[in-house]
Amino acid sequence: MRQELAQLGNGAHALAIQILGNADDAADAVHDAFTRVLTKPGAYQPAKGPLKPWFLHIVRNCCIDMIRRRRPGTADVDDLTDSGTGPEQAVEISQRDQALRQALNRLPAEQREILVLRDYLDLSYAEIAGVLGIANGTVMSRLHRARLALKEELLANG
């Protein structure tokens, strides 16, 4: 299970960044989640569902605990960009990514969170429902509203 959890680290960190707003707090939250999971090895029950949404739910709860203890800044998704292209493409991608980051940062935390879970971490609706503790239909409607809001932000400020 340790190896499977290690593979989830980057996705968990990306989610935590979106919730908390900075990489240092995100790293702390993911570390707390790993600690919680590894100190209670029998907590995960494969019969109840896949490891990924279960672990991301724990990461989310750790982030919420941190938010309750301190006020976060604005989120940044710098760690989610890909820079493996040529110079001209890199400039275009950088400009697009910057516009996307800015638009994403202007969205409410709930909308950023669901977009990251679906579009960056590629979780299914059922997995997102498990992470957020909501119904599948609620996932679909929240995701739709978040995508519309992101589109409006991009059009208005891009």
Write a brief caption for the model.
The chain contains eight helices and no strands. The protein is mainly α and 158 residues long. It has one domain (2-157): Arc Repressor Mutant, subunit A (Orthogonal Bundle), CATH 1.10.10.10.
Order of helices and strands: HHHHHHHH
Distance between the termini: 43 Å
* Assigned CATH class: Mainly Alpha
Average predicted local confidence, pLDDT = 82
Instruction: List the uncertain runs.
Output: 72-83
Which fold name is given in CATH as the topology? Arc Repressor Mutant, subunit A
Which secondary-structure class do the elements indicate? mainly alpha
CATH homologous superfamily placement: Winged helix-like DNA-binding domain superfamily/Winged helix DNA-binding domain
Major sheet: none
Structure summary, number of beta strands? 0
Percent of residues in helices:
over 70%
The rounded Rg comes to 16 Å
Structurally, the number of domains stands at 1
Helix count equals 8
* Overall spatial form: globular
Q: Work out the oligomeric state of the chains in this entry.
A: single chain
CATH 2nd-level architecture: Orthogonal Bundle
Strand content: under 5%
